[in-house]
Amino acid sequence: MPAQAPLTVLLAGPRGFCAGVERAILIVERALEKYGAPVYVRHEIVHNRFVVESLEAKGAVFVAELDAAPADRPIVFSAHGVPKAVPAEAVRRNMFYLDATCPLVSKVHSAAEHHHKAGRHLVLIGHAGHPEVVGTMGQLPDGAITLVEDVEQAETVELPADRELAFSTQTTLSVDDTAGIVAVLMRRFPDMRPPRSDDICYATTNRQAAVKAVAATADAVIVLGSPRSSNSMRLVEVARKAGCADARLVQRAADIDWAAFAGVRRLGISAGASAPEILVQEAIAGARAHFDVTIEEVVTAREDVHFNLPRVLEG
Which end of the chain is more exposed for a tag (fewer CB within 10 A), N or C? Predict the structure, then answer.
């Protein structure tokens, strides 16, 4: 049997689950323990099929909208946040709901409310149609928020001239891309108020920094995550912009064509904030089946963030 080619796996750290994702998943699990199955969840609790299917196996039922769930069973709102109309409709239907919105997304919602009450028009930097953006825009009346997706839009967007302006961002954006958009907006609207603290969450920032460090010396980079996951997609883009042209998103190790890595000697591996560590370990096991693997940890930050559960589920 021929000897396996050597492969150094550069394991990015931090990677995988963030505190908001851990909290959201735990809310569903605790609800199942406390109230029994089924517990309904509006939309995917986080954007990862492995997580969704694991919760389904425990008794969670995922639905697109509230009218697909019975009024006499608990329903959980996803980590991405929801428009105000959703909890209002749940109350109208006498539903018991649990809000798994990430606290860092809730902070953006609170800031939007604050600016609106102060009479400011809000610019939201984000991706149209993403659940987090839909949820944030749904905090205020129609027309109170203008969405800007890229530098080109920032150069041409028309904003009310008779009102103060402020901006917020989706929490899972590319740090570098967002900085470019903000620079354009501040050049055009120098009095626009920035967030009190960066809206892009710590987990997104840390994972992008780690991927940059890995991509600097890797021949290829694999990001474990879902194509529906904004932060996972951004990690692929960050790796490419950091100098690793061969960066790809994969959902599971079974999806990896290891023959395509025949000439690779240094392979970076990371995972989006909604991807569990088991997917990373599957990928490493897959690499070991084809190469003589050496693991090298590339850690750029340590995380110790924890978010409390809703009081009704504590204890």
Answer: N
Question: Residues 24, 87: one domain?
Answer: yes
132 is a catalytic site residue: yes
Q: Are 237 and 174 in contact (CB under 8 A)?
A: yes
Pure H helices in the chain:
19-35, 49-58, 85-92, 103-117, 131-137, 151-156, 175-188, 202-215, 230-241, 277-288
Instruction: Please report, for the domain that includes residue 291, its CATH number.
Output: 3.40.1010.20
How many C-beta atoms surround the C-beta of residue 292 within 10 A?
A: 12
Tens-place pLDDT, residues 134-148: 999 999 999 999 999
Q: pLDDT digit string (tens) for 233-257?
A: 999 999 999 999 999 999 999 999 9
Residue 252 resides in a domain: yes
Opening angle at CA 307, ends 10 and 274, nearest 5 = 40
The catalytic position among 89, 132, 155, 303 is: 132
Mean pLDDT on 5-24: 98
Looking at residue 315, its pLDDT comes to 66
Rounded to 5°, angle at Cα 23 from 44 and 26: 75
Helix or strand run (H / E) with residue 300: none
